[in-house]
Amino acid sequence: MTAYAELRAQLDTLTTEAFRPELAEIDRLSTLDLARTMNAEDATVPAAVAAQLPRIADAIDAIAARMARGGRLVHAGAGTAGRMGVLDASECPPTFNTDPADIVGLIAGGPSAMVRAVEGAEDSTELAREDLTALAIGPDDTVIGISASGRTPYAVGAVTFARSRGALTVGLACNAGSALAAAADHGIEVVVGPELLTGSTRLKAGTAQKLVLNLISTITMIRLGKTYGNLMVDMRSTNDKLRARARRIVALATGAPDEEIEAALTATGGEVKNAILVVLGGVDGPEAARLLAAAQGHLRPALADARTR
To answer: How far apart (Å, rounded) are the C-alpha atoms in residues 227 and 148?
Structure first.
C-alpha cells in the first residue's frame, strides 16, 4: 500500500484534484442551476489560457521552424489528454491538407484507448519510449506531452525520451510546478483550478488542452503558409460539402465568377491554393504549381512573383 499512499499524497497537492466544499451538494440543484454552475466554471478557462499566451507563442515559433524543415509534430498523452492530442492531429489533414504522418497523435495504450481505458498504460514510461522509437523521433521533430496533472508517467516519459533524441519538446499541463513542464524545452501550465467534479479533468482541464492545441496547430499551419488570410486554402476536398466549400473559398479570395472558378480548379486538379493563383496571378496550372513550390507553399509571395512576370 506504500506506493498508493505516496501517489495519494501527490494527488493531494494537485490543484486539478482539489475538493471544493462549496460544491458538495450540487446534486441537489435544479438542472438549470447545475448547467449555469458548470457553464460559469467553463467560462474561466480562456483567461487561464491567456495567461500562458507568451509561452504558447514561443513554442509555436519553434515548432513552425522545425516543421518548415520537414519535421513532424507529435502529441503524446494518456486518457482525456491523449484523446485531445489524437483529435487535434486527426483534424489537420482535412483542414490543412497535411500528410497524416506529419502530425501524429499518440495515446497510451494505442488506438483502442480512444474508446476504452487501457489499464496501466498511462503509468508506463517504457511504453512512451517504444511509441516514439517506432516513429524514429529526431532533431527536426516536436513532441508535445499532454497531462492535466503534469505528472503522468507516459507524458513525462515521452518528453524526456524525445529530448534525449534531440527533438523539440513541449509540456502542456494544468498544474503549476509540474514535472512535465520542467522536463520540456517549453513548459505551458494552464492552471484552471479545481474541477466541478473532483478530479474529473475531462472538464476544465480538457477544455484548456483543446484550446491550447487549437492555438498550436492552427497558428503553426498559418506560419507554414497553409492559409491565405483567414481562408483554408490547403483544405482537402473529400466530400460534396468540402468541394462546395473549396469553390466558395476560391470565390472569396478572388471574386471570380463561377465559370472561371471551375476552370481554375479543373486546371489545378482541384487544388484550392493553386486555383487562386491561376485566377489572381494570370498563370496556368503547371506554372501555379511551380511558383508555389518556389515559395515553399506560401501563396502571397507566389502571387507577388506571378504579378511581376
So the answer is: 31
For residue 187, the surrounding DSSP H or E stretch is strand 186-189
DSSP state of 231: B
Active site residues: 91, 122
Cβ distance 77 to 237 under 8 Å? Answer: no
Measured over the CA atoms of residue 35, residue 39, residue 40 and residue 42, the dihedral's sign is positive
pLDDT of residue 7: 65
The C-alpha cell 521552424 sits at: 65
Report how far residue 225's alpha carbon sits from residue 142's, in angstroms, rounded to the nearest whole number: 19
Kindly tell me if the per-residue pLDDT of 13 is higher than 90.
no
Contact between residue 16 and residue 199 where contact means Cβ atoms under 8 Å apart: yes
C-alpha to C-alpha distance for 47 and 96, rounded to whole angstroms: 28
Is the pTM value of this prediction over 0.90?
yes
DSSP string, 13-45: T-GGG---GGGTTGGGS-HHHHHHHHHHHHTTH
Residue 1 has pLDDT above 60, yes or no: no
